[in-house]
Write a structure and sequence with these properties.
Blueprint (H helix, E strand, L loop, with lengths): L1 H14 L7 H14 L8 E5 L2 E5 L3 E2 L1 H10 L4 E5 L8 E2 L24 H17 L12 H8 L4 E3 L8 E2 L9 E3 L3 E6 L3 H5 L6 E6 L3 E4 L6 E10 L8 E8 L10 E6 L8 E5 L6 E3 L9 E9 L2 E6 L2 E7 L7 E4 L10 E10 L5 H7 L3
Length: 368
């Protein structure tokens, strides 16, 4: 942009005839190179050898880009080769530009436009369709036995969260209550219990929340309902007062007396334990008993039974108390309504039921 170019010109002018020696000087000179070369042509290629397809990119390609190509290719046996027919730097997926890092910094090593990755991916898939002689495959996770347990309980909405990218999170029920990812979420990482949720040989997939949330509206969720999900905490122990909030029902961008929130404490007497909060006052929190280790998948269920709330961890009752039910339709996963201490970690298999499930049903959802 103009501001960055002006900065780069000042830095390079101050260098005179010498080579850059600091990181700012190196990247300032890179801006001038990019300014001189505003456009470039790249080669994307697809080949077929019998029943094997090969897709190539002239860039350093992220693993998720290769997985996108393999999942969509009309030929089941597909290889992806990077840095073929050129060397045009990194192509981070669109959402990764928000996270920063040297492979997103504007330079000849990452000089393509921000939207380059989805454009290259689509071009490669179209070429694979041509050489394969048939249309691309659609990608849906198969329903393993654990997925069938969720379906048998008749969820009002169920987000498997197996998307390659946002902003849409598809509801796997006939209700089609699709939710929306905010920015600062990355996708298609390993999820929980792959064999149970997807079947043998299939990897269950989950997004990692790093500041963004998943937003849905559930206006017909009455005073008796259940929220079931799998959580994976990535926040270091003791890093902040709340390791993170992963479920919230309240007006977006604020806290009200009608809201309720569920998360994991990070410090204090309840560190590492589940915490339920009704309304804006932290003093009104209920806390669990069990420490949830970092980097482990655990099942959590919140059961609303009128004025009583029960929270289960891995199928066992963890906390229970009296709390008036909320009436707000705005529902968020991966963060609180006011964006305070949003979840730093993964969520998966988020299901909402329009009734209060009993303890036996909760144990089944927790695969116990």
């Amino acid at each position: 942009d103009a501001q960055r170019l002006e900065w780069a010109q000042r830095v390079v002018a101050a260098m005179g005839n010498r080579l850059p020696v600091t990181q700012p000087e190196i990247y300032a000179r890179e801006q001038l190179f990019l300014h001189e070369r505003k456009e470039t042509e790249i080669v994307v290629q697809a080949l077929r050898l019998g029943d094997i397809a090969i897709a190539t990119t002239p860039c350093e390609t992220y693993a998720i880009t290769g997985l996108k190509l393999k999942a969509a290719s009309p030929l089941e046996r597909t290889m992806v080769i990077e840095l073929a027919n050129g060397g045009d730097g990194y192509i981070p997926p669109l959402e990764h530009h928000l996270f920063g890092g040297y492979n997103t910094w504007a330079a000849r090593s990452a000089g393509l436009e921000v939207s380059a990755e989805p454009r290259i991916t689509q071009a490669a898939i179209e070429l694979l369709e041509q050489v394969g002689g048939k249309p691309r495959r659609s990608w849906d996770l198969p329903a393993g036995p654990a997925a069938k347990v969720i379906l048998a309980a008749r969820p009002a909405a169920w987000w498997r969260l197996d998307e390659f990218t946002g902003p849409l999170a598809v509801d796997a029920t006939p209700a089609h209550r699709d939710a929306h990812y905010e920015p600062a979420v990355t996708f298609y990482l390993d999820g929980p219990r792959a064999e149970q949720f997807c079947g043998p040989g299939i990897v269950n997939r989950a997004p990692h929340f790093a500041g963004g949330r998943l937003r849905a509206r559930l206006p017909d969720l009455g005073p008796r309902h259940t929220v079931s999900l799998w959580i994976w905490n990535g926040m270091p122990d003791g890093a902040r007062a709340m390791a993170g909030w992963f479920y919230s029902r309240d007006h977006d961008h604020g806290l009200s007396g009608a809201g309720e929130h569920l998360g994991l404490a990070g410090q204090g007497p309840h560190a590492g334990r589940l915490v339920f909060q009704r309304g804006p006052a932290a003093e009104a929190r209920l806390a669990g008993r069990t420490v949830v280790p970092r980097w482990t998948w655990r099942h959590v269920a919140l059961v609303r039974d009128g004025g009583t709330v029960r929270v289960y961890l891995d199928g066992e009752l963890e906390l229970e108390g009296a709390a008036a039910p909320g009436t707000v339709a705005d529902t968020m996963f991966g963060g609180r309504s006011d964006n305070d201490s949003n979840w730093e970690g993964r969520l998966d298999e988020v299901a909402v039921f329009s009734r209060a499930l009993d303890a036996r049903e909760i144990r089944h959802l927790a695969l116990r």
